[in-house]
Amino acid sequence: MAEQDARKYLIPGLERGLNILMEISRNHGEMSFADICNKVDVPKATVYRAIQTLEYMGFIQRHPSTGLYSLGVNVLRLGFEYVASLDVVQVGQPVIEQLRDSTGCSSHIAIRDGQDVIYVARVSAANATIRRVSVGTRLPVHRTSLGRMLLTGLTREAFDELYPQDDLPDNSPGSPGTREALWNLVQEDRQRGYVIGESYFQFGISSIVYPLFNHDAEVEAVVSIMVPVHEIPPEDRDRLRALVGEAAETISGLMGYRGNAPVLKARP
Fold it and tell me: Would you kindly state one Gene Ontology biological process term found in this protein's UniProt entry (predicted)?
């Protein structure tokens, strides 16, 4: 009885159209008009009108040679827009928890806000003794390995807008003192694809950082681990780096990134 009550509010034409989309999706390829009619079990004239509507709106497409129907670009666009709407913390939190477990190191996700790095997600290692950062902590972009990785998504024009002065603020020992020095470091980081910062911001703390790309191949955020040593032992370096890289690839994929060669795009 409850199902009957629910069905009386359904729109038959919309239901038929969605059923057609789901059947084509289940088929994992292309379907003929006859196959679609057999699957949805409604009059051919009704199926024809639904197909014409879906094709007009770009949700299905008809192959010009074979006449077979497949999903159209608007179905893909809906999926990508949904993925793109997911927050990096929402999709990344369980991944950095796994990263913490596999590396034994505290793991983080951070974003850039102007000249600041902001930690937006963090999980601590069980034996962590260093608790310098927490969610919401801000650090200078140019003085941190996370910040340098975040800058790899900027064009030179956007970079110069972010740092209009030749001299950088807070020129502490070990950090770049000029805009040009920072730019050169960032280009090296971009070419390498990751940053290993050993005692870069604080002596005795090392980090491994990878970028996170969104569906537009922009650097949306970074994922990192904090290693409580001033230099990462050579025997651990490759293993830890590979684990962070895998986590970055997973999170980027969950945010809709598809590809191996990021496109350099400026972000505000």
Answer: negative regulation of DNA-templated transcription
Residue that finishes a domain, picked among 51, 82, 113: 82
DSSP state letter for 199:
S
Residues 32 and 70 in one domain: yes
Closest CA to 250 of 90, 81, 125, 92: 92
pLDDT band at 207 (very low <50, low <70, confident <90, very high): confident
Q: Could you read off the pLDDT of 90-139 as tens digits, one per residue? A: 889 899 999 999 988 889 999 888 888 888 888 888 766 555 677 778 88
Residue 149 confidence (pLDDT) above 90: yes
C-alpha 39/C-alpha 86 separation (Å) is: 34
CB neighbour list of residue 88: distance below 8 Å, 6 or more residues apart:
109, 111, 120, 121, 212, 220, 221, 251, 255
CATH code of the domain containing 30: 1.10.10.10
Q: Per the structure block, which two tokens stand in for 175?
A: 């950090």
Q: Which two tokens stand for residue 128?
A: 């962590």
